[in-house]
């Protein structure tokens, strides 16, 4: 399938210099314990330690649901790891002051903008990330739907969910919102279609009011789809990773909003359901015929500015992001690599072919990823309250606007 046109452009990174000193580098992440990524982490450790005699690399996997709390505490006390894995967007840029600039290393990567604060690139992206809806073709056929024609408009999506509700066998969508992540994925999926470029820019700077018409449409639609029975009961008690996706892979839901890259994605779903049973489409939104793929920089590595070994840590980031290592991560996990020099021909699959076609069409940033951390945390809470009926759209949006203004003033 070759290199991803339009995304993977540039040149390979230079090899790291050899140092000979007894030193130790610590890397924090939430992935080094994943068996699917084991070859990648082993290759990084082997390559870096061979090029830097006397240096030991230690990968420390932190719990994903506590990761940024632990990291914030560590960085706030000028301690913590030498290198850290970050999501693109505000989870990276909000910590820019604590991170070493990597501008001189950033050429040849897609998604760098999502790891840039002002004129400072603070992490090198490893992957490209985004959201699509995956669907079970066998369940579509059983419900009397044409599995070769996924919904392209909001009315068509409503008809699909009405068909599954009438059948009564499985819910239309798997949903996990225990941590509020289901609300994140829904917001970004609809915002990609609804937001104008100006609104996307305002979202990125924290200037888009939550009381704006499109924000209201998203919140109202979130409530309405829940009330219409699109999701299984207990969504607020279901973890998105991986309970929601295991439900989908067991054939207990017809659709799920999943990732483009490395987990809860095409590769994992094809392995469980078979390539012939997995379909993919862009989530429609009410009131528009536009379909835009929500996509941004995925995950990337940053250097702790307080590290006593910051230069050495920057060399480690080069190895973590280098084409040879990124290729291993891509092939083993199904990630879409951000490095320009990674050959993606080994990632061939029917579903991936559709995704790459979508990437060549209209795209839009991941709206939730650019929220200030306090705003994101509040949306997690409000999205749960809206599903449970413990708040109204008016009250939820008013509270979100209050937190947005507080975040802007800080």
Provide an overview of this structure:
- It is a single chain.
- This protein has 15 helices and 13 strands.
- By secondary structure, the protein is α+β, with helices and mostly antiparallel strands.
- The chain has 2 domains: 23-126 and 298-340, 3-Layer(aba) Sandwich (D-Maltodextrin-Binding Protein, domain 2), CATH 3.40.190.10; 130-295 and 364-409, D-Maltodextrin-Binding Protein, domain 2 (3-Layer(aba) Sandwich).
- Strands 7, 8, 9, 10, 12 and 13 form a 6-stranded mixed beta sheet that branches. Strands 2-1-3-11-6 form a 5-stranded mixed beta sheet. It has a two-stranded antiparallel sheet with strand order 4-5.
- The protein is globular.
- This is ABC transport system, sugar-binding protein.
- Belongs to the bacterial solute-binding protein 1 family.
- InterPro entries: Bact_solute-bd_prot1, SBP.
- It is found in: Periplasm.
Summary of the model, kept short:
The protein is of the alpha+beta class and 410 residues long.
What's the SSE blueprint?
Layout: E1 23-29, H1 38-51, E2 55-61, H2 67-76, E3 83-87, H3 90-93, E4 116-117, E5 120-121, E6 124-125, E7 127-136, H4 137-142, H5 154-167, H6 181-194, H7 197-205, H8 213-227, H9 240-249, E8 255-259, H10 266-273, E9 278-281, E10 293-297, E11 299-303, H11 310-321, H12 323-333, E12 336-337, H13 350-359, E13 363-364, H14 373-388, H15 393-409
Parallel strand pairs: 1-2, 1-3, 10-13
Antiparallel strand pairs: 3-11, 4-5, 6-11, 7-8, 7-9, 7-10, 7-12
Helix pairs in contact: 1-12, 6-8, 6-14, 8-15, 14-15
């Amino acid at each position: 399938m070759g290199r991803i046109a339009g995304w993977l452009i540039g040149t390979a990174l230079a090899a790291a210099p050899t140092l000979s000193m007894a030193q130790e580098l610590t890397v924090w992440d939430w992935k080094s314990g994943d068996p699917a990524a084991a070859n990648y982490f082993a290759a990084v450790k082997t390559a870096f330690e061979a090029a830097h005699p006397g240096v030991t690399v230690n990968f420390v996997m932190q719990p994903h649901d506590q990761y940024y709390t632990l990291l914030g505490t560590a960085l706030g006390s000028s301690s913590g790891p030498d290198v850290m894995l970050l999501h693109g967007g505000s989870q990276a840029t909000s910590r820019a002051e604590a991170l070493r600039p990597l501008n001189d290393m950033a050429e040849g990567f897609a998604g760098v903008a999502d790891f840039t604060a002002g004129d400072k690139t603070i992490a090198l992206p490893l992957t490209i990330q985004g959201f699509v809806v995956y669907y079970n073709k066998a369940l579509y056929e059983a419900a009397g739907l044409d599995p070769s024609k996924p919904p392209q408009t909001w009315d068509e999506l409503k008809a699909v969910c009405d068909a599954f509700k009438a059948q009564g066998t499985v819910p239309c969508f798997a949903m996990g919102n225990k941590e509020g992540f289901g609300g994140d994925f829904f917001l970004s999926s609809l915002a990609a279609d609804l937001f104008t470029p100006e609104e996307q820019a305002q979202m990125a700077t924290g200037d888009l009011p939550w009381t704006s018409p499109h924000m209201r449409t998203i919140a109202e639609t979130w409530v309405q789809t829940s009330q219409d029975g699109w999701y299984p009961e207990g969504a607020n008690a279901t973890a998105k990773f991986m309970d929601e996706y295991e439900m989908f892979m067991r054939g207990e839901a017809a659709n799920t909003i999943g990732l483009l890259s490395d987990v809860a994605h095409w590769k994992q779903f094809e392995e469980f359901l078979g390539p012939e049973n997995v379909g993919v489409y862009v989530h429609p939104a009410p009131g528009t015929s536009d379909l835009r793929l929500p996509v941004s920089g995925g995950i990337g590595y940053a250097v702790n500015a307080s590290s006593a070994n910051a230069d050495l840590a920057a060399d480690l980031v080069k190895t973590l992001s280098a084409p040879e290592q990124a290729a291993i991560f891509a092939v083993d996990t199904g990630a879409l690599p951000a490095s320009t020099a990674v050959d993606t021909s080994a990632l061939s699959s029917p579903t991936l072919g559709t995704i790459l076609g979508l990437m060549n069409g209209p795209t839009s940033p991941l709206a939730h990823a650019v929220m200030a951390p306090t705003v994101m945390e509040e949306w997690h809470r409000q999205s749960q309250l809206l599903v449970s009926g413990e708040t109204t759209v008016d009250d939820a949006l008013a509270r979100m606007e209050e937190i947005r203004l507080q975040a802007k003033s800080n």
